[in-house]
Model the fold of this input.
Amino acid sequence: MGNQMKVGIGTAISRVDGREKVTGAARYAAEYVVPDMLYGVIVSSAIAKGSITAIDEDAARSVPGIVEILSHKNRPGEAWFDRSYKDELNIPGTPFKALHDSTILFSGQPVAVVLGKTFEAARYAASLVAITYQEEAHNIDFAVSLAEKFLPKKKRNTYHPPKTRGEPDKAFDAAALQLHEEYHLATEHHNPMEMHASTVEWHGDGRITVYDKTQGSQGVQAYIASGFGFSKKDVRVVNAYVGGGFGSGLRPQYQTQLAVLAAKKTKRSVRVVMTRQQMFTHAHRPECTYSIKLGAETTGMFTSIYGDATTSTSRFENNMEDIVTWGMMNYASPNAGGEYTVAPRDTYTSADMRAPGAATGMTLFEIAVDEMAYKAKVDPLEFRTINYSEIDAMNELPFTSKALREAYREGAKAFGWSRRTPEPRSMTDGRELVGWGVATGMWDAQFSKTSASAKLSANGHLEVACATSDIGTGTYTVMTQVAADTLGLSITQITAKLGDSDLPTAPVEGGSWGAASSGAAVQLACQAVGKKLFKAAKGLEGDPFGAANFDDVEFVDGHMKLKGSDVAGVPLTTIMRSSGENSIEAEETASSGISGMISMMKKARNTHSAVFVEVKVDEDLNVVRVTRVVNAVAAGRIINPKTARSQILGGVVMGIGMALHEETFADVKLGRWMNHDYAEYHVPANADIYDIEVLFVDEPDPEVTPLGVKGLGEIGIVGTAAAVANAIYHATGKRVRSLPITIDKLLELEK
Ligand code: MOS
Done:
């Protein structure tokens, strides 16, 4: 096998699915070609609330090539009777079920699907479906909905209520320095590049295969089985490639429901794809208002933290996020507390979007922290170290690791923070004001029980498989590298399979637990194959491993060899040949209890980051450019510095969008989102992005997860928008407390 490029854990290799993606060989849900497939085009509700009184389908049905029009009036009866069925996110309330009845719950709700032999016929006919509604009064104005805010009795099981410590009110009243301000985040939509799509292949024997845009094939499989009268073994869900998710694919979206209903109705294969506009009719990050009260001593030491936040939800479900807890966990204030409520409006239910809760709550809190630093006349970075907590201050738990101090230090050094002059408006570059801001990021380091298989063939090729998803995060690559590392193989000798409900059990890809979880499962499966190889090696001629135990051997360059020996050892293909087997395989499950690697002691498990931002602001036009970002991340062990950096880059770009661009506007009169396309919903474009530097600080943590990996999908966005907001204040002296910071808000402050 000779010399091989190092490819294992810790190596910056390019993603193994890169070629498939750039050549178009990677197929997405709407790209599977199935014989005799019908094309389904969704008709969306024109009203926000009320009911359907009549559907006139005559004109639509007369279009050549139209096979069926599905609505609540003729949908298959056996599906959807169970309105109490919950998907795996378990959001309290009644999950939306497309075509269930005549009730309209939100604008853009799917009310019919036109099924045609061609997409063009279906699209044209869909425009001819005439629906009559009985309208009711609606509200999608978040400010108005606040009058109805409440704390749901039944909580979402991922929700963590704030735990009060000390007497925050009393301490605030007595504080030498006080801050009490309202912060706000606009509604945002996920907008992955790939639209939500489902291609249902109707096999005609009771089985269906669903090519679905989802972050979890097995979640969708369970959902279809329990909601649509299939037995689980008859439903296979494939999501081999996912064109971005950001959380919009955590729960099955309504195109999956429609495609399955339509396939059942017509007993044919069906594809349903949402339009970009329809992508604005489901998941979105909730709008948030967050009142923050901070008390501090003149030295800048916090004496009190108090937050009161409300996020938006729908009328039919109570989506909840952790908003007020992040500041309480991160800073060592003797007194802290918080309140949280949700406010219902007549939209689809808000949803998890990249770092749900933290991207909102930690970010807005970090703007308040900056304000208090100025009140205390302490450098904002210094202020954060004065209030540094070695433990999770809210839950009073030690961390498995917290290298945030190192992130502050190394980030500041790379950024050149020491050259900052403290006064707002004190730094300029030509006609632009220059501002430098800092913020802290924090996210969960989670691990989720995952299984994987490994199969070594006689020719030395290894296949590792797991039902996890790769939503663009690099899971294929991580699985390949962990396998290469464990069995000493090169990348070209390994195939990673994922994105298929037939593969070993894995959770939905979310919460940044993917690499830690599927990585650990792949490692266990490969170790099990290694043990079987070791046993098989006992049959080798001359018994070269004689008295050795499994712990005495290692796998290097396609060989099994004695540890420490300078002899190359025996090629795995030789061991395979002598075993007489065509393949050696194993399936293993990584759960939190394995090999005692995860401590039984209750500890806090989190990633941290320090984000440094430079902005340049045109003083006359108030145009903001984010000219430099340094994001220093403490995330445990880094499996692949290249794909890891890409995750942080993506998070930072999304954070810049949160700071300056992203906002879904409500047309409160029509009850619908106004800017429902890429032309009007602004995200950062190439011209908005300048220099972004990503640093990973050394944070060895064998306790946090089996591989010591903390996960990187989400931490990059947390805090970034606050660092931008804080830099804008430093540049201009203008404090904008509502994200995104658009030009009009800066102009407003000039008056
Ligand atoms: Mo993420 S919001 O858990 O996809």
